[in-house]
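Box 3.1 A note on notation
Throughout this textbook, protein chains are presented in two layers. The first layer is the amino acid sequence; the second is a token string describing backbone geometry. Keep the layers aligned when reading.
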Amino acid sequence: KHIRMGNLPVDTLRPLDPDTFAADSSAVVDFLAGYYRDVDKYPVRAADLEPGRLRKLLPDAAPEWGEPMERILDDVRRDVLPGLTHWQSPTFFAYFPMNASAAGFAGEMLSVGLNVVPFVWVASPAATELEGVVVDWMARLVGLPDRFVFSGGGGGVLQGSTCEAVVCTLAAARDRALRGIGHEGIVRLVVYASDQTHATFQKGARLVGIPPANFRVIRTTAASGYALTGNAVRAAVEDDEARGLVPLYLCATMGSTGLGAVDPVRELGEVARRHGMWLHVDAAYAGSAAICPEYQGYLDDAELADSVSMNPHKWFLTNMDCCCLWVASPATLTAALSTYPEYLKNVDGPAGGAKAPPAGVDYKDWQISLSRRFRAMKLWFVLRRYGASGMRAYIRRHVAMAEWFERAVSADERFEVVAPRRFSLVCFRLRPPSTDQASDDGGVNRELVAAVNASGRAFMTPFVVDGKFVIRLAVGGAMTEMRHVRDAWELLQRTAEQLLGQR
């Protein structure tokens, strides 16, 4: 007697039965198509922020018997969607965008469906080689020098996030330095970044063993556009060297999270070279813009860098997760991350003869974990489906929307732009009433962003710079159009008028 599992008897369960696979996958695609069709009807931020809501709705234990796909998707629609913040909403302007596209989804489906694990070349040669191709394509698109492509002696890898890329490059820099001063010298190593640099770098430094007291956060000012300057770094480095410490690693940012600030790569690169530091360029968000010639100047001096990273999943229509990391010296990176157990060596044929992978690439040695996903497929699909010209138009359209929003803010005397617009990020605030000017603790601007977000019609996030509480509007959603930006501005104006009228 068969026991039913949804539409399948348990004793004949075939998890990859082609007919069931096609039916279930089609149901999910139809569900997502309907979701994207109606995503603008959902409050962009989770409507119900009560902690524990979903736990109350779901059973305490997993089901004993399988259930039909239709029933599971009904539960997603009823129980899960209302508790999501909808990152693909056209009025999501918070954080930085998390892009998605039909091409990225198709590539992700193939990646997940094929389900290969290309940790060594022989484990899936084509997956390894496709990854090498697409990271070289991307390096050339954003204008990186030849030293970061495989034919130029460097190379790239697809990580999951900037966090992973940071830990890997910090480990490489650490081991390179310790070969000269001994492992006990780790307590002398110092990492440098600006007060605009993402906190990921502080976390990464701790993870590779750098004492927290040896992380230098260097102050930036409005005079430099909140960019890190060579003089400020030089002063900090020379002070540390005078105390017997060893400068290890310097981060330059192209498009900082708070304000979109851009650090001068050549200026910082020259300081890094002079003092033997590893220079990493973090272009997680704005690196995508460098495919446009008008933005490539920010990376013109990357020949002085040791590594560069950018996230196609932010602003390059590549579904989460995908981070390009390029290094000028792969050997330095793999020396810190390699392991060579017998069962992971590349072998070919029944005789077990060793076969070296192309360009010496076993990607397990370019990342933290051993296992890895076939991320190259989705980035390849995006590049093939939309082409470089299509992607440039996509980036420029968002920049144009941000330019319009910046002009609109500047034209309203109640508001001010706090820092010059960079790329598609605008940082602004409502000019505080005179009673708030002294402390400027956020006051009316905290109320403004809270009211806008609570409306469900837009979602923005704040930042604090020079004691000023500012609001960030980051344009970059795959479904965002100019009308959504205009609507967000009208919402801000109406809400501001109401708040000021209550004071």
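Residues 188 and 243 are 10 Å apart (CA to CA). Residues 349-354 have pLDDT under 50 and may be disordered.
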